Amino acid sequence: MHTLMIAEDNQTIRQELEELFRLTGRFNVVTSVATGKEAVEAYEDSPVDIVLMDIEMESPDAGIQAARRILARHPDAEIVYLTSHDEESTIVTAMASGAKDFIVKDPPWSSLEDRLAAVLDGQANLDARVQRLVMDEYRRLRASEESLLYFIHHLSSLTGTERELVSCFLEGLKVRQIAQRRCVEPVTVKSQIRTLLQKLGLSRTSEIVALVRQLKVEHLFRS
User: Where are the beta strands (DSSP E) in the chain?
Assistant: First the structure.
């Protein structure tokens, strides 16, 4: 029989879950706590096979913080969220903690034990919506990483003038304003911008601004 911890601040739900697992006999609830802090402390004292973790307990994200702390010290810990919060941002943040499944509370918990068993078998059966959100976030991060590597690769080749141009773009300056600031002719600025765009493989200055802000590297172009 697998050992289980329940971290749930609602006493009624906690008791319902305890009774469910007692009756079916598939999981042995060895620990039942009401806060994320207690969950961390209890896991340290007595690790279990799997943790069923609420998200909002003593704070709105107490369960996520608890999961992070547990997994930081015990990377092999198996944690499954059971929560009433199904906002996309919550799902993405929660799954990024390293948990294995995200289940929305839906009494009478008909499939709960099967979901837990699947996690322990290494075959977590994520809901389609959760899978989509996780994959979308993975693709977004992968694209950001590739963009950052590309940008860093080309950053070293930028001249001082080109870095100054990027700084001007970030301020929203137009060609004539840039020319006035740099005391050169607008035609010179246009030529320098064409060279910069070719070097970065982009077609518009707005793409440079968008890329710099997306990668959060504005500080590299401050005077």
Answer: 2-7, 27-33, 50-53, 79-83, 101-104
| Residues 29-67 pLDDT 10s | 999 999 999 999 999 999 999 999 999 999 999 999 999
Domain that holds residue 43: 2-125
Q: Is residue 188 part of a domain?
A: yes
pLDDT at 91 > cutoff 80: yes
222/218 Cα distance (integer angstroms) = 7
Residues 10 and 100 in one domain: yes
Q: How many CB atoms lie within 10 A of CB 171?
A: 12
Same domain, 213 and 151: yes
Same domain, 60 and 105: yes
Written as six digits, the tokens of 83 are 């929560």
Contacts for 27 with CB less than 8 Å, ≥ 6 apart: 1, 2, 3, 4, 21, 50, 113, 116
129 alpha-carbon distance from chain centroid:
16
CA distance linking residue 48 with residue 29, whole number of Å:
9
* Domains of the chain: total: 2
Q: Are residues 212 and 120 in the same domain?
A: no
Q: Closest by alpha carbon to 71, among 31, 36, 27, 33?
A: 36
Transcribe 96-115 into DSSP letters. Answer: HTT-SEEEE--TT-TTHHHH
With a cut of 80, say whether residue 108 has pLDDT above it.
no
